[in-house]
Amino acid sequence: xxxxxxxxxxxxxxxxxxxxxxxxxxxxxxxxxxxxxxxxxxxxxxxxxxxxxxxxxxxxxxxxxxxxxxxxxxxxxxxxxxxxxxxxxxxxxxxxxxxxxxxxxxxxxxxxxxxxxxxxxxxxxxxxxxxxxxxxxxxxxxxxxxxxxxxxxxxxxxxxxxxxxxxxxxxxxxxxxxxxxxxxxxxxxxxxxxxxxxxxxxxxxxxxxxxxxxxxxxxxxxxxxxxxxxxxxxxxxxxxxxxxxxxxxxxxxxxxxxxxxxxxxxxxxxxxxxxxxxxxxxxxxxxxxxxxxxxxxxxxxxxxxxxxxxxxxxxxxxxxxxxxxxxxxxxxxxxxxxxxxxxxxxxxxxxxxxxxxxxxxxxxxxxxxxxxxxxxxxxxxxxxxxxxxxxxxxxxxxxxxxxxxxxxxxxxxxxxxxxxxxxxxxxxxxxxxxxxxxxxxxxxxxxxxxxxxxxxxxxxxxxxxxxxxxxxxxxxxx
Length: 478
Ligand code: ARG
Hints:
By secondary structure, this protein is mainly α. It contains 19 helices and six strands. Helix 3 packs antiparallel against helix 4 and helix 4 (75-93) packs across helix 5. Bound molecules: arginine.
């Protein structure tokens, strides 16, 4: 594109230039009086959206570069704008920018400071855009980075779980249904169940990122712009896959934020379930794990206590995460197209959910890395509750050709006998079993130990140590 003036180009220093009187609102041209103090407070979002500063400046740089390339502003103005924006980013990063609720939001702060620094060129930056497409662009850029970081943290948690699953591939523990002892499983298998969940979470994070990666910039207020802009150029400069295809949708869509909140809420639910198990396992009656000093706290009155506060807080924070998802759903549900100021309330729930997710992922990864397992207590618990009753029934089916329903019934009678004797299944005398069903032989004892039980479940996806090791290897390969 030529750098020479075109009909749409505005040049600095023209006599038609109007300067806004000092202190006048950027949108204040048709207003005689200033806003009420309460209006200023309710309208301001700078406390929240200052986190968009780097994204806002990146978006403005791409926009200014495009405006010059399409001859809408001069290259001199562009260069001044780019230099000014870099300086402002530095000021904000150093904490040198004073935020003022009268300037509403991050977009106006940057533009006001730019104009202070470079004069009229700064006032040209907003040509062919609106805060509506600007904020939608900034928010997508910010969220894209946040999702990438959360994906990396989720992968770190998966790596920690894989290491522990491998270390405890042979460790037997009770598997539960209804939190009643059901069948023996291996701890490695149990941890690998969470690897599955978090792997799907990482997939959802990737899907969310892919769908949000379209550029709203150039949709302007709602209808597009009359200036000959190049939306493909700005989209590409900002790493988006393409410009958004409908200007009304571009400024009013927030499903990308909802999808992120939904994805984070589901991830949070998985973190919470694991946290809940950690709380349970660390209780004295369970005594399955010992929490490290790094991830537990003491009681101010009971010296023996070691409290799983981090796990409890992970479990609790997920409540807020789900609440934030709900909050934005309800903000959006009644809004007509295109932009409404309601949408300014979109950032707080997303920022909060992202912060909580980053924190809870880090805490969970630390707890998993530090996990100390009481394998003896796990094994003892696995042997209780007649956990190999299903193995006994399966043996009756295999060895005696009994229909499973009959085997279930005979096993029930043997369990009753063990209960009366106060022993585990593998300690019921053969004669007692034969009194219940005469065809039972000594061979039955080969399936009644917890180790035999887990080793026998050597089917794809089963709890056998060999399967766990195969799954760990498969997951590491990706
Ligand atoms: N601070 C606003 C927000 O976050 C920017 C967009 C303002 N647009 C408007 N038409 N007033 O939504």
